[in-house]
Amino acid sequence: MEPDELATRMRQGEAFHGLRLLPGAWTVLRVDGRGFSRFTEERYQKPFDPAFHQVMVRTASALLEDLQGVYAYTQSDEISVLFRPDWSLFDRSVEKLVSVSAGLASATFTHAAGVPAVFDGRAWLGVDERAVLDYFQWRQSDGSRCALHGWCYWTLRKEGRTASQATRELDGRNVGYKNELLFQRGVNFNEVPLWQRRGSAIFWERYQKEGVDPRTGQRTQASRRRLKVDSELPMKEAYETYLRGVLSASEPAPA
Ligand SMILES: Nc1nc2c(ncn2[C@@H]2O[C@H](COP(=O)(O)OP(=O)(O)O)[C@@H](O)[C@H]2O)c(=O)[nH]1
Ligand SMILES: [Mg+2]
């Protein structure tokens, strides 16, 4: 058999390699820590640990910067990174983008935390800005629901309940019940740090950099961009307004 013929036949086995993100769609790459319930239980404070969140924010920043995204959002052990419709990294190859984002997240987290950690990855597509706003509302409300549950679960565990007792006690309980459970024990859920309830965002901000022109000695001003981390996010409609602001600031300059 000719080597070329073998290669052609074998390439046919790379069945997913031609798959591309839909042209013109907004994209979110989301990575999620694999088996982080156990991983965090062995290494971090429960239910929340600022040191863990810091590493997640560092990982999200690395993804945003490396993959040329416009906005990153992290809550719990997940990170969503948003890309504009005209983004064309890796020719929008799904395999490449999903694997590289999970790889980058795993490497960055591992390096920062000093222990091996693995992330999975997936791609989400949105047809318009409305869908993007809904996506981030969805992730934020999921985070907030899980934060309340996590606080209740670990409060019960610390009182001596076993894992299954705590799970059973919270099964099917609504938000009011869970808030009350905490309140009875001196915890006002509305007062726990915002990053635990709403997550953190990372995006680009413009700033003016002062310099001196070495030829003329004159002071100069240049517009630069840098990453900004926000751990005091608004929610609901206010979060939507906030996101609209980030999206419009990320628009490509008119030609
Ligand atoms: N100790 C600790 N655990 C956290 C923190 N943030 C998220 N987690 C845990 O990470 C897990 C994430 O959930 P999920 O992805 O569904 O679980 P997985 O499938 O085990 O990774 C939950 O068990 C959270 O309690 C944190 O700040 N500290
Ligand atoms: Mg996970």
TrEMBL record:
The keyword Transferase applies. Keywords: GTP-binding, Magnesium, Metal-binding, Nucleotide-binding, Nucleotidyltransferase, Transferase, tRNA processing. Its cofactor is Mg(2+). InterPro entries: Thg1_C_dom, tRNAHis_GuaTrfase_cat, tRNAHis_GuaTrfase_Thg1, tRNAHis_GuaTrfase_Thg1_sf. Residues 131-226 form the Thg1 C-terminal domain. Signal peptide: none annotated. One of its GO terms (molecular function) is tRNA guanylyltransferase activity. Residues 9-113 form the tRNAHis guanylyltransferase catalytic domain. GO terms for biological process: tRNA modification. It is an enzyme of class 2 (transferase). Pfam families: Thg1 (PF04446), Thg1C (PF14413). Its EC number is 2.7.7.79. The keyword Nucleotidyltransferase applies. Belongs to the tRNA(His) guanylyltransferase family. This is tRNA(His) guanylyltransferase.
